[in-house]
């Protein structure tokens, strides 16, 4: 049974760019103030959405390492919060920022948020969702009862092509590195594998509208009947990627999209390994050279990331965070 929800937010409550996280907070699966621990997020993803443990823990680990405070085990699902202090000694800057802070994990070409360089990358944008629905109108299926339109893989492909094309043209600082490309496609695949009604296995327009517009569970909605694994969601990601032959990259000074150089072996063996390496390259390296409970927590979180990466051929060597601090 779903917990009741409340949208009566107080001024310091945090909401951000992820509809799933916002929904969890609105229904009380994680604290309603939007400040949660690694354990709370992982358990909430399992309980509310039936995400398999390692799949959910991997995403929670990314959030905590990139925009949270592993020392106190807190991360904001939105923006900066006084409840999530900077790391000891401010080794990664004066604020953590929350998962809405652009760059390390949050990024460009979102389905419902603007690029940070262009506008509001935190809050739902009606115009972007309306553009997504144009793709649903072109490619979506009809529900068996004929009362709604159903999202499918061709719809996701159309949406992501549109997101990338529009933002690459409008954003001179457009960046679609491997870590962001992977996250963008994983999030799109959620529509079919996580947001779909578990009883019908359909992601209808009212269901997706409830998650995106209202950030609440739809009426009479049930989670997936069996745990959603990274392999299950990854199969949809692979279909989307195969239809969008774009290498990870970014705009240069002339506004031309150029591919990023491949990582060194063995992380050049697959896209998933590339994304794993790219995430480490954009997570603060100062996290590694710590002591005590912070060091233990970082080792736990980076170990979870590595265990997920091991599922991909060639990703048999761990790479620890080595990115810049304070960004």
Automatic annotation (TrEMBL):
Q: Which organism is it from?
A: Mycena venus
Q: Where is the Heme haloperoxidase family profile domain?
A: 3-237
Cell division as UniProt keyword = no
Tell me the protein's name. Cloroperoxidase
Query: Could you give a GO molecular-function term held by this entry?
Result: metal ion binding
Q: Taxonomy-wise, where does this protein's organism fall, top ranks first?
A: Eukaryota, Fungi, Dikarya, Basidiomycota, Agaricomycotina
Q: Which family does it belong to?
A: Belongs to the chloroperoxidase family.
Keyword terms, alphabetized? Heme, Iron, Metal-binding, Oxidoreductase, Peroxidase
**Cross-referenced InterPro entries, in alphabetical order?**
Chloroperoxidase, Chloroperoxidase-like_sf
A Pfam family (short name) is Peroxidase_2
């Amino acid at each position: 049974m779903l917990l009741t929800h409340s949208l009566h937010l107080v001024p310091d409550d945090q909401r951000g760019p992820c509809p799933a996280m916002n929904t969890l907070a609105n229904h009380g699966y994680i604290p309603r103030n939007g400040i949660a621990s690694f354990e709370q997020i992982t358990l909430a993803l399992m309980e509310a959405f039936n995400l398999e443990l390692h799949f959910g823990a991997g995403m929670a680990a990314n959030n905590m390492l990139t925009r949270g405070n592993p020392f106190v085990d807190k991360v904001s699902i939105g923006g900066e919060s006084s409840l999530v202090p900077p790391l000891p000694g401010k080794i990664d800057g004066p604020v953590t920022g929350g998962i809405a802070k652009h760059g390390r994990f949050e990024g460009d070409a979102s389905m419902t948020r603007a690029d940070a360089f262009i506008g509001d990358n935190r809050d739902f944008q009606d115009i972007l969702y309306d553009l997504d629905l144009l793709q649903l109108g072109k490619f979506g299926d009809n529900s068996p009862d004929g009362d709604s339109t159903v999202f499918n893989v061709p719809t996701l492909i159309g949406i992501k092509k549109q997101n990338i094309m529009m933002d690459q043209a409008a954003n001179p600082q457009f960046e679609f590195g491997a870590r962001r490309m992977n996250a963008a496609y994983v999030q799109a695949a959620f529509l079919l594998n996580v947001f779909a009604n578990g009883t019908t296995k359909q992601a209808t327009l009212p269901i997706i509208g409830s998650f995106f517009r209202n950030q609440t569970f739809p009426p009479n909605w049930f989670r997936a009947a069996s745990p959603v694994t990274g392999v299950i969601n990854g199969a949809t990601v692979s279909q989307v990627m195969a239809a969008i032959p774009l290498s990870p990259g970014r705009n240069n000074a002339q506004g031309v999209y150029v591919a990023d150089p491949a990582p060194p072996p063995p992380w050049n063996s697959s896209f998933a390994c590339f994304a794993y390496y790219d995430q480490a390259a954009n997570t603060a390296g100062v996290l590694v050279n710590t002591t005590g409970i912070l060091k233990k927590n970082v080792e736990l979180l980076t170990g979870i990331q590595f265990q997920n990466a091991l599922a991909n051929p060639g990703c048999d060597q761990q790479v620890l965070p080595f990115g810049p601090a304070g960004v």
